[in-house]
Amino acid sequence: MIDRHSILDERQAGTAPTREPVEQFSDRIAVIAAEHRPSRMPFFNRLAALPGSAARNPMLLGRIHLVYQSAMHATRAAVYYLPHLDSPAMRKRKLQIFVDDDGLPGGDTHHYQLTRAFRNIGAKCLLEDEEFGDPIQLCRHLDRETAHFVRLATSLYARSLGPWCVVEVMSDDWMRALASALAVHFPEILKEPYFADCFSQGVEERHAEESLAVTQMVLRGRPDLWAETLRDAEAMAKALDGVWKVLDKIVRTAAD
Ligand SMILES: [Fe+2]
User: Fold this and answer.
1) Quick count: other Cβ atoms within 10 Å of Cβ 246?
2) What domains appear along the chain, each with residue ranges and CATH number?
3) Average pLDDT score over residue span 200-214
4) How many angstroms separate the alpha carbon of residue 54 from the centre of ligand 1?
5) Quick one: which of 1, 64, 111, 112 has the fewest CB in 10 Å?
6) How close is the Cα of 250 to the center of ligand 1, in Å?
């Protein structure tokens, strides 16, 4: 495991990919992911600890849905623009990621699954599914922090593979934290395909491994991308912290 100081040293010294085998890329992403581990954020425990009547408020659930779905939407839309994966073999691997999100049996998608999970627990959703379109236009409906995450995902996913890696590496952690917090009030939510399929099929662990494997292949041929890839990963992880802070604020307000 690489410690945080070596990341900072490298930044200060400028990029020096030859100093470090590209195989250690996944360790560097793990350091960033650990530092920004979603489940450490107070939002999840605070949601679990809400009085039942407050947690069942349709507007509260609708506000949580808007922020969380917007952040997820931004990353799902941005994956289509990932760079450096243009060879036939890489396109096949990229396609599998699209299929996991948007090519589910019966025309289903993770987006629709998430909305159904929230509607089934009584959420009054503030936007219809197809209103999650152009990410920049979506920002008009969002607070500053969530809009920042959406804008950053849109620009950084298209520039380097680091943001995708770090989000995939962290996603199993927040999926489990969110499912556990909601299940305190809505035990049946664990059966919703959004969570159940993901956990039973190990989807996010697979995405984490795949994103790291693919990115290491790219970095082997393009070591000049090393510093930018890590820098963008850290910026994305930091912005995701902002999303959990907004969600915490929403829950705090509901608890008052
Ligand atoms: Fe994923």
Assistant:
1) 23
2) 25-32+39-255 (1.20.910.10)
3) 94
4) 30
5) 1
6) 25
Question: Measured in angstroms, how far is the CA atom of residue 254 from the centroid of ligand 1?
Answer: 30
HSE on the CB side for 46, CA within 13 Å?
A: 18
Residue 33's closest CA among 132, 136, 228, 170?
Answer: 170
Phi-psi region of 84 (alpha: psi -120 to 50; beta: other; left: phi over 0): left
Using the mean position of ligand 1's atoms as its centre, give its distance from the Cα of residue 117 in Å.
Answer: 18
For residue 9 the two structure tokens come to 């040293």
In the reported structure, the alpha carbon of residue 171 is separated from the centroid of ligand 1 by a whole-number distance in angstroms of 6
- Which of 198, 138, 197, 143 lies closest to 174 in space, CA to CA? 198
Please tell me the distance between residue 162's alpha carbon and the centre of ligand 1 in angstroms. 14
Tokens representing 227 are 């510093």
Average pLDDT, the chain: 92
Examine the pLDDT at 161 and tell me if it is beyond 80.
yes
Query: 85-131: per-residue pLDDT in tens?
Result: 999 999 999 999 999 999 999 999 999 999 999 999 999 999 999 99
